[in-house]
Protein backbone atom coordinates (compact mmCIF):
# COMPACT_ATOMS: atom_id res chain seq x y z
CA UNK A 1 0.00 0.00 0.00
CA UNK A 2 2.85 2.45 0.73
CA UNK A 3 4.12 1.89 -2.81
CA UNK A 4 0.67 2.91 -4.10
CA UNK A 5 0.96 6.13 -2.08
CA UNK A 6 4.27 6.87 -3.80
CA UNK A 7 2.73 6.21 -7.23
CA UNK A 8 -0.23 8.54 -6.80
CA UNK A 9 1.78 11.39 -5.26
CA UNK A 10 3.38 12.20 -8.61
CA UNK A 11 3.10 15.78 -9.81
CA UNK A 12 2.05 14.51 -13.23
CA UNK A 13 -1.34 12.84 -13.73
CA UNK A 14 -1.35 9.10 -13.03
CA UNK A 15 -3.84 6.95 -14.96
CA UNK A 16 -4.40 3.60 -13.26
CA UNK A 17 -6.11 0.64 -14.90
CA UNK A 18 -7.33 -1.95 -12.39
CA UNK A 19 -7.83 -5.22 -14.26
CA UNK A 20 -7.72 -9.02 -14.11
CA UNK A 21 -6.49 -11.47 -16.72
CA UNK A 22 -9.78 -13.42 -16.74
CA UNK A 23 -12.10 -10.41 -17.23
CA UNK A 24 -12.99 -9.84 -20.90
CA UNK A 25 -13.58 -6.05 -20.73
CA UNK A 26 -10.24 -5.76 -18.88
CA UNK A 27 -8.55 -7.66 -21.71
CA UNK A 28 -10.06 -5.45 -24.40
CA UNK A 29 -8.70 -2.36 -22.60
CA UNK A 30 -5.05 -3.56 -22.83
CA UNK A 31 -4.40 -2.14 -26.35
CA UNK A 32 -6.32 1.04 -25.46
CA UNK A 33 -4.15 1.61 -22.38
CA UNK A 34 -1.01 1.01 -24.50
CA UNK A 35 -2.18 3.64 -27.01
CA UNK A 36 -2.92 6.13 -24.22
CA UNK A 37 0.52 5.59 -22.69
CA UNK A 38 2.19 6.07 -26.08
CA UNK A 39 0.20 9.24 -26.80
CA UNK A 40 0.90 10.84 -23.43
CA UNK A 41 4.59 9.96 -23.27
CA UNK A 42 6.27 11.46 -20.20
CA UNK A 43 3.47 13.98 -19.56
CA UNK A 44 1.68 11.37 -17.43
CA UNK A 45 2.16 7.96 -15.88
CA UNK A 46 0.05 5.01 -16.98
CA UNK A 47 -0.06 2.07 -14.60
CA UNK A 48 -1.85 -1.28 -14.73
CA UNK A 49 -2.69 -3.03 -11.45
CA UNK A 50 -3.90 -6.65 -11.37
CA UNK A 51 -6.60 -6.80 -8.68
CA UNK A 52 -6.03 -10.55 -8.20
CA UNK A 53 -2.45 -9.82 -7.12
CA UNK A 54 -3.39 -6.69 -5.14
CA UNK A 55 -6.60 -7.70 -3.37
CA UNK A 56 -5.96 -5.59 -0.27
CA UNK A 57 -5.55 -2.45 -2.38
CA UNK A 58 -8.61 -3.30 -4.49
CA UNK A 59 -10.70 -3.71 -1.34
CA UNK A 60 -9.39 -0.48 0.18
CA UNK A 61 -10.36 1.39 -3.02
CA UNK A 62 -13.70 -0.46 -3.26
CA UNK A 63 -13.01 -1.76 -6.76
CA UNK A 64 -16.16 -3.62 -7.82
CA UNK A 65 -16.45 -3.46 -11.61
CA UNK A 66 -13.62 -4.19 -14.03
CA UNK A 67 -11.87 -2.52 -15.55
CA UNK A 68 -11.84 0.41 -13.11
CA UNK A 69 -9.90 3.44 -14.29
CA UNK A 70 -8.67 6.24 -12.03
CA UNK A 71 -6.70 9.42 -12.47
CA UNK A 72 -4.67 10.76 -9.55
CA UNK A 73 -2.56 13.90 -9.31
CA UNK A 74 -0.58 15.02 -6.29
CA UNK A 75 -2.04 12.19 -4.21
CA UNK A 76 -5.65 13.20 -4.91
CA UNK A 77 -8.15 11.21 -6.97
CA UNK A 78 -9.36 13.46 -9.78
CA UNK A 79 -11.52 11.01 -11.75
CA UNK A 80 -12.81 7.44 -11.54
CA UNK A 81 -14.95 5.22 -13.74
CA UNK A 82 -15.65 1.53 -14.18
CA UNK A 83 -16.02 0.08 -17.66
CA UNK A 84 -14.40 0.40 -21.04
CA UNK A 85 -13.46 3.72 -22.63
CA UNK A 86 -11.79 4.61 -25.91
CA UNK A 87 -8.24 5.95 -26.09
CA UNK A 88 -9.21 9.48 -27.18
CA UNK A 89 -11.55 9.94 -24.22
CA UNK A 90 -8.89 8.73 -21.78
CA UNK A 91 -6.21 10.94 -23.33
CA UNK A 92 -8.50 13.98 -23.04
CA UNK A 93 -9.34 13.15 -19.40
CA UNK A 94 -5.64 12.89 -18.49
CA UNK A 95 -4.70 16.03 -20.46
CA UNK A 96 -7.37 17.96 -18.51
CA UNK A 97 -5.22 17.30 -15.42
CA UNK A 98 -1.95 18.59 -16.91
Automatic annotation (TrEMBL):
Domain Thioredoxin, chain residue ranges per copy: 1-98
InterPro entries: Thioredoxin, Thioredoxin-like_sf, Thioredoxin_domain
Gene3D superfamilies named in the record: Glutaredoxin (3.40.30.10)
Sorted UniProt keywords: Disulfide bond, Electron transport, Redox-active center, Transport
UniProt superkingdom: Bacteria
Pfam families attached to this UniProt entry: Thioredoxin
Family under the similarity heading: Belongs to the thioredoxin family.
Name of the protein in its database record: Thioredoxin family protein
Organism (species): Flavobacterium luminosum
